[in-house]
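Supplementary Note 3. Input sequence used for the single-chain structure prediction.
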Amino acid sequence: MSTLIQPEAVASRARDVLATWQADAEWTRLWTSCAQYTSDWDDFYGYPTIPDYDAVADAPGLFTETTRVLALKTAMYELTGGDEKRAELAQPVPVDVMSHALTAQFTVLSRIQDRTGIRFVHATDMEDGFAGGTWRPGDFTHQAYRAAFGPVNERYWIDAEETERRRQVLDEVYARIGVTERGRKAAIPAAAA
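The predicted structure, written as discrete structure tokens, is reproduced below.
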């Protein structure tokens, strides 16, 4: 197997992967579970990078983008003979965050994997810097995505530089209420709680 994988090869396999998953009897349940999971979609630096984010209204678009990226990652995983690091393609933060909501549907995903024989591939520990949001226009992920599914949804595909700029704005806003270190620490006075 060649170590050089072309975006078109990933795209071709990703289309097949996604079509197989979507044909599964529990695909609708997976979508419904993710759509109903919105009360647990709290995060400080992923979804809030989306302008005027709405957990319910944005769920369909995020689900679509996330399942497409997971199909690309699965295709890359297969084409590289199981290389988790290479399969952890760069992606925008909101899509990465949604992948966590989706993979939380562990039992349904397990049954879909068992029936289709196709793995859902996502490895947070293999992400560059454990932060997600490393996507840049024109990179390998972007090329493979375009070849497989057409243009990205620009609402959710926020590039690395713009993501960081928006996170710096959020840093300032959150610090005023005692949330620091990108949401990892909170010192909110008990009287305010």
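The mean pLDDT is 90. The helical segments are 7-23, 27-36, 55-79, 84-87, 93-103, 106-116, 140-149, 160-175.
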